[in-house]
Structures are given as structure tokens and as C-alpha cells.
Amino acid sequence: MSVSEKLLSSSMKSSSSSSSSFLSFFPPETPRLRLSSSVLHSSVSYSWKQKRPSFQVYAVSYEKFIQFALNHTKHHTHLSPSPLQEKFSSMMSTDGNVELQMGSFEAPKIRLLRSLSIETETMQVLDFAAFPKPEYDVPIFCANFFSNASTSIVLLDLNPLHDVINQREYKEKYYSSLIPLGLLPWGGKLTSESLTFFSPIVIWTRFTPNQHKYDVLYSAFVDYYKAWVELIDEAAEENDASIIKFNCEAQHRYLAWRAEKVDPGHGLLKRLIGDTAAKELLRNFLFHGIDELGSKSFLDYFPDYRSEDGTVIEKRSIIGKSFENRPWDARGEFVGNIFIN
Asked: How far, in Å, CA of 320 to CA of 315, rounded?
């Protein structure tokens, strides 16, 4: 039995009782906010500075995040292992001490649902994403989590397929019912180039890990994923070939950017499995579709990154500016007109 089949089978045995809201783990006196696509109509403020017992990183497991997503998806559609699973199921680090676990699936409306997880006594990593088929312009579900004993770094979003800063129609279509949210503190500078691939509801944060915050993060993941599945459920198939092509190119552009510039696990993968294997994993698994959805190169989409010798400039930002504070207000309006060098 493949890893995907094992995950799919075990997900049906996992309980969905943990689907409480994002803030349900805060003390009783704190207002609660349910993050679902049908509620989410008020914002709250809260503090991460509560005293909690010391937290050991190996107490964290992102496995239940994956299990919830598979279980919830299977209750809404027919989910089957992806052909990618034949090649990408598990991989050992070059030193033989760390195992990378992978799973990949597809469904009638989902081109690829995939996960990469790493669990050791000192580090926990989850890279989880779900990509719609080009016949649907639904956002891309994205969850990138990294935890060690001192820090957790979190990126959770429904990445927009099309521009939500300048195109109000797309933002209203998919995000109006999800705004405002009780979001976690902003995690620091984010390059202006990267920002175009994030939505007004993006959670980008850093914190010192403990069980309480881990539970809050799990509830956020549950609510965001439920919202995404609801969007997929409600999405109507597009029959206009020109619009399908437009969606296909938008997803291809996203994949090209993520694989080249902003996948947060790229450096870690290089250290674990070497540069060649890391690039193959990025291109052919994590961001599968680069060779299938289009023929344009990274520089075709982002010519400003072309160096004098025609290669890609390595630095992440050409503009050299970033958003130090959250660039959307509580109503989801873009207010990030001030850049920090």
C-alpha cells in the first residue's frame, strides 16, 4: 500500500471533532471567532504573551493537519492517489538521519493536493497545498509551517489565482465572505513582489511555540481548509477555452515564482538532500505543473530578474522594499502604500 493510500485510509479513522474555531483555544473570557466561509464577520484582538508551560518541539506533529485535510476532502469529493506518488512517497536525507514523507492526490476539481512533512526531535515541517484544475479559478490553498524549539514560522493562505490588489471583482468573488478575520500578528517584512501572490486573509507570523499556540494554529488550518473546500464545492466549471487558458497561465506563473523564489523550504531541502534532488522535488512534486501547464520560463514572467548574462538574479527582491506591517486593513482593503527599505 502506497503512502497516499495509507494516509487516505487512516484519515477516515481520524476524528473531525477537532474542527473547533481558530480562537476556541483561548481563555473563556476571550471573544471567540469562527473562521469559516459563512461566518467571519467581526475581528478581535488578543495577545500571545500568556504564560504557558515550556514546549518541546517533538511534542508537535503536523500529521493531524494532513489527516484532517484528507478526511474532510474525502467527505466532499472522490479523492484518489496521484500518479506522482509512484516516484514521490518518501526520501531519506543524505546522512540517512531524516525521512521526508510525501503524499499526493487528485479529485474531479482538484489538479493536485500534496503534502511534504518532516518530523525529527528538533524540527517539524509541513508544506501542504491544493491546486484547482484550470477549469476553476478558485484560489490555491497554501500552508507552510516550520517549528523548532525556539521558533515557529507560519504561512497560511488561500493564495489568489488572479490579482486581488487591483482587481476588485476577483477579491469580492472569493474573499468578501472571509473578511475580516481574527488574524495572528504580522510576521515581519514581506517583499513587495511576493505580496501579489497573497490574499487579504493571509496569516504570516512567527512565535515562540507552545501547546496553546499549536492548538490555535491547528484550528486556523481547519477553518481555512474548510473555507477552501467550500469554494471548490461551489465552483462552476468554466467552458470558455480562453478563460481556461487564462487560469492555466495564472497558475503556471504562480508555480514558476514559488519554485524559483519564495518556497520557504528550499534552503532546508538543499541541506537535507542536496541541491539537485531539492530542485527536482520542488519542480516535479511540490510545484508540479511547471512543465505541464505552460512553456514560459521564470524570466518570461518576471523579466526584471534577468541578469546581464541572461541568468536569474538570485536575490528575492528587485524592488528592494518590503511590507513590515500588514498591508490590508480589517475590511480587506489594501493600505500598503508605504514601503520599508
From this structure: 9
Tell me the domains of the chain and their CATH numbers: 57-238 (3.40.1500.20)
Q: For residue 78, what is the DSSP state?
A: -
The tens digit of pLDDT for each residue in 103-128 reads: 999 999 999 999 999 999 889 999 99
Number of H helices, E strands in the chain: 9, 10
DSSP state of 306: B
Predicted structure pTM score = 0.83
* pLDDT per position as a tens digit, 203-240: 999 999 899 999 999 999 999 999 999 999 999 999 99
What is the C-alpha to C-alpha distance for residues 76 and 53, in angstroms, rounded to an integer? Answer: 38
Give the Cβ contact number of residue 242 at 10 Å. Answer: 8
If one counts every other C-beta atom within 10 angstroms of the C-beta of residue 310, the result is: 7
The one-letter amino acid at 201: I
Residues in a beta bridge with 145? 126, 154
165-176 tens-digit pLDDT: 888 999 999 998
Cα atoms in the 13 Å half-sphere on the side-chain side of 161: 27
